């Protein structure tokens, strides 16, 4: 027999951005816990609204599965006398497991015993299993309330725990479980009882709760598209905003509002930001012209009653926001963006790192360095102007009020001032990527400015000792480092981060005595981020270790090396890696590579030397182009000679001169594959 399990955690409103991760954690943890407890089940789901997290387990068995374990005892020689009589060792082993000695069996010279543990009733396990699930959830931020020591993302107000129709009793954070839940704040009739786990969703719906976020998303998207079609707007819905709105409501109703067309004279970003980021409204674009319309869609947490009143309220709030934006825009346009540069002298970037104007001067030097070292062909004068303008919009009233518009307003004001398209685009792209999965800069100048800005911040913060610790990263240094590496990989720029760090450090005052330690921490920090990127792309850990050994801070070269090693693995070329690994295992890092032909005594030596010279002539060109796959094809031509030499020649000859010459030859051969990193770290 089986029953469904329900666990509902009733809370104060949980932030929408945290909900998907929490529900995923709860689902995965529950599946793992049930499996480890040997409780069979059909499926595990999690659903939730802003005020509840719910776990639903379908068809959980009423009893644990019986579990048989095998125990290894003493050797048969010790366990039994010569006549087969059990000794004290066998008797004690059996007694310790609660078995009769006749249940023991001998296998491979040892005594074994099988013990079958009868499963317990599931309802006796759930009172400890369910609260453990709640306690092990992790959050970006958690809190305590009242006199509680227990921490959770928001205060827990009620708990429902059912196994079929039966309440699973436990108490957590001062709240005792029952079957009583809470309905919609405004539409429901207050608290209500859930008769059974199976009836949860239907009962919740009767109290104006659409608990399944997928159901809410489907319904909201359908209603949004219906309203868009009716208004002659494009049938596009921002998926990020949609996901957030899904977790802001329990019973959604879509409505359409409007605002004065005069506001459309403002830059589009000035209108969109208050709508989306502040009010969670969906902007509407004309299907005919593609231009922003003076209408918006929003989702109400309630039913269709009094929609006109709700619409009017939303329109009034948006009008106030747009009035503010219009005022700030008008005030900002009384002077050019360039005029704001001077004010950067009075805005501190970070205590110990100077002002924003100081940062702009550092960016000038660093971007020009990048331009020349990477041979990008940009105009230095344009780069320097972009650097001075980069932070200018931070002193504008618009950005001080709507901080989300940093960079965006820089671009808008620069275009209105007649700055070049390249400079204007770079002012916005300097902040990209802003989060995981965000767009990367699309222009070369924007990419250069973004890399320079992030590296300058990274070096400065490490100099101040403001390193990320554990989950704490208040200055987003991990995100900024990952952003730099993604840009370098996307652009395929042959940039060694070590030299970029040197160039950035030169923009600060003379280094102190701890600079060496800071530099080591910084390089290790960057190398770890790059390894994580390669792992996220599906590369094996040992290939990454091998490819990055000796070259840990060049993203583009590291990518090509690891991809080439991956190709070798995919094409069943492990024998190539094994052959050169054998060579590498016989030499030290400091083994000389001077070879004397006159000391050769075997034909295999001469053959290996000849093929080594041929590969030495061919490899530099492909390595210079970072064509590591072509390098593998060349290296393969030496495999037969390597095998013959290692199989037939005694490397450690009694004659010291011959022995050292043979080791020098192997070091010379291994040097051919060293540009790949250290292939000895690659698991074959």
Automatic annotation (TrEMBL):
What chemistry does it catalyse, as a reaction equation?
tRNA(Gly) + glycine + ATP = glycyl-tRNA(Gly) + AMP + diphosphate
The protein's superkingdom reads: Bacteria
Give the Pfam families listed for this entry.
DALR_1, tRNA_synt_2f
Q: Which residues cross the membrane?
A: none
> Which class of enzymes does this protein belong to?
ligase
Task: Report the EC code(s) recorded for this entry.
Answer: 6.1.1.14
What Gene Ontology cellular-component terms does the record carry?
cytosol
Q: Name one GO molecular function term.
A: arginine-tRNA ligase activity
InterPro entries documented for this protein: DALR_anticod-bd, Gly-tRNA-synth_bsu, Gly-tRNA-synth_heterodimer
Keywords in alphabetical order = Aminoacyl-tRNA synthetase, ATP-binding, Cytoplasm, Ligase, Nucleotide-binding, Protein biosynthesis
Its GO biological process annotations read: arginyl-tRNA aminoacylation; glycyl-tRNA aminoacylation
**Domain (DALR anticodon binding): residue spans on this chain:** 577-671
UniProt family annotation: Belongs to the class-II aminoacyl-tRNA synthetase family.
Record note on quaternary structure: Tetramer of two alpha and two beta subunits.
- What is the name of the protein in this document? Glycine--tRNA ligase beta subunit
């Amino acid at each position: 027999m089986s029953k469904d399990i329900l666990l509902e955690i009733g809370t104060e409103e949980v932030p929408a951005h945290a909900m998907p991760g929490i529900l995923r954690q709860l689902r995965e943890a529950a599946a793992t816990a049930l499996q480890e407890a040997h409780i069979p089940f059909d499926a595990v789901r999690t659903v939730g609204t802003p005020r509840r997290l719910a776990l639903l387990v379908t068809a959980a068995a009423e009893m644990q599965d019986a579990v048989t374990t095998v125990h290894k005892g003493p050797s048969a020689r010790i366990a039994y006398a010569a006549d087969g009589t059990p000794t004290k060792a066998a008797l004690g082993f059996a007694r310790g497991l609660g078995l009769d000695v006749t249940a023991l069996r001998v296998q491979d010279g040892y005594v074994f015993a099988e013990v079958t543990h009868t499963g317990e009733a599931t309802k006796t396990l759930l009172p400890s299993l369910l609260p453990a699930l709640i306690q092990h959830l992790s959050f970006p931020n958690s809190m305590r309330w009242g006199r509680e020591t227990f921490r959770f993302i928001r205060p827990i107000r009620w708990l429902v725990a059912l196994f079929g129709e039966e309440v699973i009793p436990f108490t957590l954070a001062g709240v005792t479980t029952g079957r009583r839940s809470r309905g919609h704040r405004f539409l429901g009739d207050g608290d209500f009882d859930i008769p059974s786990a199976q009836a949860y969703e239907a009962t919740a719906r009767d109290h104006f709760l659409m608990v399944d976020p997928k159901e809410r998303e489907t319904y909201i998207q359908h209603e949004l598209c219906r309203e868009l079609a009716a208004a002659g707007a494009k049938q596009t819905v921002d998926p990020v905003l949609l996901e957030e709105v899904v977790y802001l409501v329990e019973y959604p109703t879509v409505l359409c509002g409007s605002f004065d067309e005069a506001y459309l004279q403002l830059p589009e970003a000035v209108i969109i930001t208050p709508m989306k980021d502040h009010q969670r409204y969906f902007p509407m674009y004309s299907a005919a012209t593609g231009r922003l319309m003076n209408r918006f869609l929003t989702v109400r947490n309630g039913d269709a009653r009094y929609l006109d009143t709700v619409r009017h309220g939303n329109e009034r709030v948006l009008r106030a926001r747009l009035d503010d934006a219009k005022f700030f825009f008008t005030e900002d346009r009384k002077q050019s963006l360039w005029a704001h540069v001077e004010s950067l002298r009075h805005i501190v970037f970070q205590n110990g790192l100077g002002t924003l104007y100081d940062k702009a001067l550092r960016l000038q030097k660093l971007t020009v360095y990048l331009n020349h070292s990477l041979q990008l062909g940009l105009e230095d004068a344009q780069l320097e102007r972009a650097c001075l303008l980069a932070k200018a919009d931070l002193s504008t009233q618009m950005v001080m009020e709507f901080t989300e518009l940093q960079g965006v307003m820089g671009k808008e004001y620069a275009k209105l001032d007649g700055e070049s398209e390249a400079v204007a685009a770079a002012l916005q792209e300097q902040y990209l990527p802003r989060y995981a999965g965000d767009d990367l800069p699309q222009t070369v100048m924007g990419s250069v400015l973004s890399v320079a800005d992030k590296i300058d911040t990274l070096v400065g913060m490490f100099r101040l000792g403001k390193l990320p610790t554990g989950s704490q990263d208040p200055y987003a240094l991990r995100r900024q480092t990952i952003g730099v590496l993604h840009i370098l990989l996307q652009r395929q720029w042959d940039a060694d981060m070590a030299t970029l760090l040197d160039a950035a450090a030169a923009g600060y005052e003379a280094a102190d005595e701890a600079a060496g330690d800071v530099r080591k921490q910084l390089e290790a920090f960057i190398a770890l981020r790059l390894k994580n990127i390669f792992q996220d792309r599906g590369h094996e850990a040992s290939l990454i270790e091998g490819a990055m050994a000796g070259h840990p801070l060049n993203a583009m070269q590291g990518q090509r090396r690891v991809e080439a090693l991956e190709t070798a693995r995919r094409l069943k070329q492990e024998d190539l890696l094994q052959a050169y690994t054998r060579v590498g295992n016989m030499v030290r890092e400091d083994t000389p590579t001077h070879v004397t032909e006159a000391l050769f005594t075997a034909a295999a030596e001469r053959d290996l030397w000849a093929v080594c010279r041929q590969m030495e002539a061919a490899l530099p060109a492909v390595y210079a182009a970072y064509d590591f796959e072509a390098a593998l094809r060349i290296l393969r031509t030496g495999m037969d000679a390597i095998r013959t030499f290692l199989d037939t020649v005694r490397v450690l000859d009694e004659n010291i001169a011959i022995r050292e010459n043979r080791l020098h030859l192997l070091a010379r051969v291994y040097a051919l594959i060293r540009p790949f990193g250290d292939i000895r770290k690659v698991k074959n």
